[in-house]
Amino acid sequence: MDFIMSAYAINKLLRHLGFLLLLVSGHANAESFSVESAQIDPIGNGYVLTAEIKYPLSLRVIEALDNGIPITFQKQFELIGPDSLLGKYWPWKQTLWSIEISNELRYLALTQQYLLIDLDTDYRRYFSSLDDALKSLGEVNNLILPPEYIAEPEGLILRLRSGLNLHALPTPMRPGALISSKWQLTSPWVEAQWH
Amino acid sequence: MALSFIKRYSAGAGPYYSLGILLIVLAYLLSAATQDSSALNDLFIIILAISITSILLLIALLGRSIFGLYRDYKIKKSGSKLTIRLVSIFAILILVSTSIVYSFSVHFLHRGIDSWFDVQIEQALDDSLELSRSSFSIRMRTLLRQTRMMANLISELPDEELNHSLRETSRLSGAIEFSLWTLDGQLISTSTENPALISPNKPNDDVFRQLEKKKDYISLDPNDDLLQLRVAVLMQDQEEQFLQALFPVNDRLSTLGHSVQKAYTDYKELNYLRKPLISLFTLTLSMIVLLTLLASIWFSIWLSRRIVQPLQELAEASQAVASGNYNTKLAASGYDEIGFLVRSFNQMTQRLTQSRHATQNSHQKLEQQTHYLTTVLGSLSSGVITIDKKHNLQTANVASNTILQIELHNLLNNNLNSLSTDAPHILPFIQLIEQKISGQKDWQQQVEIQQKKGMQSIMCKGTRLPDHAGWVIVFDDVTTLLQAQRNAAWGEVARRLAHEIKNPLTPIQLSAERLQHKYLPLLAEDQTQTLTKLTNTIVKQVEAMKEMVNDFSDYARSPGLQLQRLSIGDLLREVLSLYQSNPSHHFVLLNSNEEIIVNIDGNRFRQVLHNLLKNAVEASEDAQLHVDIVLSYHAVNIEDHPWLEIIFHDHGPGIPDDMVNNLFEPYATNKVKGTGLGLAIVKKIIEEHDGHVWAENNHDGACITIRLPLEERTID
Question: What is the pTM of this model?
Fold first, then answer.
C-alpha cells in the first residue's frame, strides 16, 4: 500500500513534468490558450484578481468533446515574493502561495448543451453553445487573494496560466494526447497588473 | 566521475539486478492495474516509463552481449563462431515465432475491438436519442403554446392582480415556477411551488439573447438528476418584459432520457476511443513482444555461451595439447554428453602425459646410451666411422680424426668421394672402402696412406650394419706396430750378426798380424811387399767389419735411458762447436726466444745430433755442394700439448724420392761407405724418447724434423 502511495507521488511528479512539457511545446503552438488580461484591484483590506483567458480549442479537442469525452481545464495561480531571509540582499524569489482551479467541460447529447463543472465545488453550469461555455470558463472574476501574503504588495508577483489536464483524459487517449501538438494548448505564464 | 560510475556499473551485475527489479515492479503494477482499472489510469505513465526503461536497459544489455560476441569473433576466439551460429538460429526462431504470434495477436486485437461496435446498435442509439428529443419537443411545443397563452392572459390583468394571477396560473399549468422579468434582468414577480426557494431561477444568457431577437425561448435543462423545461416568452403588451416558466419533466421520462443520453454518450465515447484503444493495446502488445523478443535473444546468447563454453574450453585445451602442454585438465561439468566428453578428454591427456613421461624416460635412456657409446667410441684408440647405404659419412669418432689427420666431424653427411677432395692423402683409404663396401661380405684389409711424417699403415675392418643400413668401418694405425716388428727383427739380426761375426774377427786379425810378423823376414823382398799388402788388407777389412759389428751391436742393444734435464740450446751449441774446425763448413743455429729445458738422455741425444750432422755434411760433400746447415729449435703446441721441435735444413741435394718414405729404415742409404744404420739409430733413439722424426724435401735441400714432448713448466 505504501508502495502504491509512493507510486501516486511519482505519478504526480510525472504530471508536473508533463505539464512542463506542455508548457515548452505550448510556446511553439500558435493556437494555444492565452491570458488576455489580468489585473489586481484592491477591495477593502484585500485584493481581488480579475482576468480573462481565451480558449481557442483545436479541432481535435472539439471533436473529442463532441464525442462525449470530458475535457478538464486547469488554471494555475502563483504568488511569488522575495525570499524572507535573503530578499533584501539577494534577488531570490519563492512561491508564497499557489492555487489550481480545475473545470470539466462536457457535451450533453440529449439537451445539446455544454456542461461546465467546477471540480472543486461541483458547481454546474449549462451552455447552449461552446463559445458561451469557453467564455464563461475564461472569466476570472474577483478571485480573492490571500490577505496574509499581501500586506505589502510591493515586490509581489502574481502570475497565472491555463491549460488542459491531459492526464484526466481516458487512458487510451493519453499517450496520443501527450505527444500530439494539437493537445498542447497551455498558455504561457502571465503576470497580473497591480492597480 | 559519472562516466567512471557508469563504466563500473555497466561492467558488473548491476544492470541485471536493475532489470530484474524493474520487471518485478512492472509485473506488480500491471497486476494492480488489472485488478483495478481506475488504478491503471493513475499508473499508466509509471507503467509506460518502467516499460520503456526496461526495454532500453535490455537493449543496452543485448547490445553489450552482441558486441562481446562480435569482439570474440574478430579476435577469432575459440567457440565464437559456434556461439554466433547458435545465437543466429535461436534469433531466427524467436523472430519468426514471435512475428507470427504478434501479427495474429494484432489482427485478433483489431477484429476483437471492432466487433464491439455494430452499425445497427449505433443507429438504434441515434434513433433512440432522436426519439427522446422528439418526445420532449412535442411536450416543449405544447408548453410553449400554453405559456404564450398564459402570458397573454397575464398581460391583460391589472398589476395588482399580477402575483395572484401568477400563482393561479402556475398551479393550473403544473409549472414549478413562474417569474416575470425585464429584458435587462430585473425580476418583476415570481411564483414558485417550492416555498424553500428564496430567489427564482435566473434566466441564463441564452434566454436574454433569444428574447432580444424577439423570439421565444424553450429548452430542456438538466436539473440535478432530473430534467426540467424552461420556457420564456415575451409579454405581448410589454415587450420589455418576459415570462419564464419552469416545467418539471416526468420522473420516468427524466430517467429514461438520462439513460438514453448516458448510453449514447458512452457508446460514442467508446467508438471515438476505438482507434486510440487499438493503438494503446497495440503499443502495449508491441512493448511486451519487444520485451519478450529482446529478453529471448539475450537469453539465447547467454544460453549459447553456456552451451559453447565447455566446447570452447575443450577447443582451447586441445590447442594447448597440440602445442605440447599435456598437463591440461578441464573441470568436470555435469553428466551429460559434454561432461562425458570432458572426462574422456581428461583421461586422454592423463594417458598422454604418462606416455610422454615414458617417452621422455626412453629418450633419456637412449641419450644415456648414446652418450655412453660416444664416450666409448671417443676413448677408443681405433678409428670408427659409419657410412649409410648412400655412402655418406654418418659418424666419426675422435680417434678417426687423429689417425687420418682430418677433421671428419666437419664432413659428416658428405659422400665418401668428396672427403678426398679436402684431404687427398686419404684417397687410398677412401678407394679401399668404396671398393669393399660394394660387396656384401665383411672385410678386413691393410692400406698405406702418405702422411706428412711418412707412410702410414692403416688396418681397416668393415662390418655391414643390420638391415643394409650401411657399414661401420673400424681402423687402426698399425705403423708403429709394424715398425716395432721390423725393429725387433732388425735387432735380432744385428744381435746375431754381432755375436756370430764379432767372435771370429779377433782371431782373424791376430792371425793375419802373426802371419805377417812370422813370415815377413823369411820372404824375399819382392814377396814381402805382397805379404804386407795382403795382411794389411785383411786387418783393415776386419777393422771395418768390427766397426760394422759395433754399429749392429749399438742398434740391437736397448740400454735404459739416463734421463736428465738439459738445456737444448746448450746441447746444440756444444755439439755444433765440434764441427767448427772446417772453415768451409757453415753452421747456423737459430735460437728460440725462450730457454727450453728438456728431459733427455744427453749422450744418446748427442749421438742423434752427430748422426744427423754427419749425414748432412756427407750428403753435401758427396754432391760437391757447399756445406750450409741451419738448425733451429722452438716450442710448439700441438693438440694442447707442448712439443720441442728441432729442424735441420742442409741446403744439400735433397733426399731421393724413392728414399723419402724409408729413409730411417736400416740399410736405407745411397752412400758408398757406411753401414746404413745411422738414421735408423736416430729414429730408434727419438722413439725411445717418445718423439717423432721425419724427413722431407724443401726447394733447396732436405729438412729433417725432430719433435720431442715437453713438460709445460720446462719452458721459461
Answer: 0.53
